[in-house]
Every structure is written in C-alpha cells, then in structure tokens.
Amino acid sequence: MTAVALLTIDGYQVEQASCGQSALNRVLQHQPDLILLDVMMPGLDGFEVCRQLKENENTRLIPVVFVTALGDREARLQGIESGGDDFLTKPFDQLELSARVKSLIHQKRLNEDLDHAEKVLFSIARTIESRDPNTGDHCDRLVSLGRAFGEYLGLCPSHIRDLAWAGYLHDIGKVGIPDAVLLKTGPLTVAERTIMEQHVAIGETICCPLRTMQGVLPIIRHHHERWNGSGYPDGLVGAAIPRLAQIFQLIDIFDALTHDRPYKPAFSMEESLQIIRQEVERGWRDPVLVDQFETFICAYHSGAVLGINNTARQGEQLQPAKQSHA
C-alpha cells in the first residue's frame, strides 16, 4: 500500500496482484513498464515469477525490482540468478523508490529502442534473402543448425546466440551488391567477384553501431576466410580466424552443399562431408573442427543430438568442386 501511494503521487498508474500466478497473468495482459515484486507470495514465489518473465520473449525487457524485508545475501543472490534488475528493502524510502523506478523505466525505453533496431536488421536480412529465390529457407536452417552445433560444442549461451543471429545477418551486406552480380547464375568475372566480396565489409558496417551485435561482427566479416590464408577479406591464417566464424562457416557450407543452387544440384550428406574433407586437404578448413562437425552432423541426422530429429537442416555457400557467388 505504501508503494502504491508513493508511486501514484509521482504520477504512475499502478496495478496490483495478490499472488504470483495472478501477477504473471496481469503482466501478459497489460505489459507494464516496471514490476515491483515481493519475494514471499502465495503459490509461486517472486523468484519463480521473475524467472518466467525473463524467459518469455514478450516480457523479458520489463525491469523487475524485488521488494523484500529479507536483507540477507542469499536472497539477493537468488534474485540475481532469477534475472532481477534491482532490489528495494522495506520500509521504503520515498526518494530512493522514486529515483530507482524512474531510472529503470528510462533503461527499459533504451532497451526497447535497441530491440526495435535489432528487429529492423533481421527484417532487412529477410528481405535480402527473398531477393534470391534459390536460397529458400537458408537462414532459418542456419539458425537451427547453429544452435544445435553450438550446444554440441558446449559453447556459452551468448556465443550460441551469436551463431543463431549470424544465421540471419551473415549476408546482410548483400543489400549493397547489384542484382546483376548477386543473382548471376554463371561464373563471376574477376571484377564481379571483387564486388561480391565487398558484402562482408558492408554487413559489418551495417551492424557495427549496435552494441548487442558486437559478438556477431567477427562472423559477418570473417565467414569467408580460409585456414591457409587464401580467403577474404583479410587473408587471416589458422587460429587468427575467429572461432565462431570458423564454426559458422562449416554450417553455411554444409547447407549450400545439401540444397539445390543454380550452379549445382543438392548433394547427399555423405557427398557433402566428402567435399568438406577435400577442403581440409586443400588447407581451407581446420581439420580438428571438421572432425567435430562430421561427428556432430552424423548424430544430428540420426536424431541423436539434443533430441533433434532429421527434419532439421544445416548451412553455407561453397567453393570446392564448383564455386558459389557468396
């Protein structure tokens, strides 16, 4: 009641819920700007309510402030683990309550702006993919396989997210490539290939301003490098090629090989893995990573990886037997 009174005086519209489940239902219906959440509640406690809110794509950006008389360290740690954004201890200090609420709502607005910018980038990437009717659901397949391979390798959640985002954004720079080059079905001339290779730098420039995209930038720029330094744009050699770029590269190549393109038919899984092995022999790929990928992909197709069945797919453009334009 004190919190309601103080916030109402500050001009906020305040709604109340009597238990955890009621709180979840109200939040889904009304999408508040901020949630003040008691730890001790009937039914679901505050930690579980917060956890569910932060796992939901529609509510994850809403700041959650835990309000509790429990001043112990364990409660605060549990609140942080469940995704809480801040803590207030009863009895309330009016100035502290007002300042924290104002600050968190301002932060939410900034996060929403970032979220909107990310969605715009993904929309642009979708539009670019639709320019080329031959790639089909290439990006969606890359996202699915990227997540699965990342989990197989034991990558941290942020790196798995970067791989998934790269599935949509790796070729966003093709927005700056003329259709005459991008959609050409025959071999590219030297000049045309130079133009095509610019798409990685263009993509990096497009995504660079967003802080949340920093982990994706090395994938966008370097997913066409080769282990022996013969790739582009920087001719990086071996371990100098960012690890996530190498991982994504295999996914991207595999998808291009296993699906029809204007310059080639779809190869079987066995044929595709054989072509990738030939690229190892040419010095283009890391042999250790390719061995891991081969083990993973065989299990993935048999449904043995993370419970995935063989309706899932894979990912990229290749340059072995026939060169792709990407």
What report would you give on this structure?
The structure is a single chain. By secondary structure, this protein is mainly α. The chain is 53% helix and 4% strand. The chain contains 14 helices and three strands. It has helices at residues 2-9, 20-30, 46-55, 73-81, 94-131, 138-152, 157-169, 179-182, 190-197, 199-207, 217-222, 243-257, 269-281, 287-301, and strands at residues 35-38, 64-68, 86-89. It has a three-stranded parallel beta sheet, covered by helices on one side. Helix 3 links the parallel strand 1 and strand 2 (64-68). Helix 7 crosses helix 12. It is elongated, with a radius of gyration of 24 Å. Mean pLDDT is 83; it is low at 304-326.
Distance between the termini: 61 Å
Oligomer: single chain
Instruction: Please provide the ordered H/E string of secondary-structure elements.
Output: HHEHEHEHHHHHHHHHH
How helix-rich are the residues, as a percent range?
Answer: 40-55%
The percentage of residues in β strands lies in under 5%
Number of helices: 14
Q: Mean of the pLDDT scores?
A: 83
Radius of gyration: 24 Å
Largest sheet: 3 strands, parallel
| Low-pLDDT sequence parts | 304-326
* Anisotropy-based shape: elongated
Counting helices, strands and paired strands, the structural category is mainly alpha
Strand order of the largest sheet: 1-2-3
The number of strands is: 3
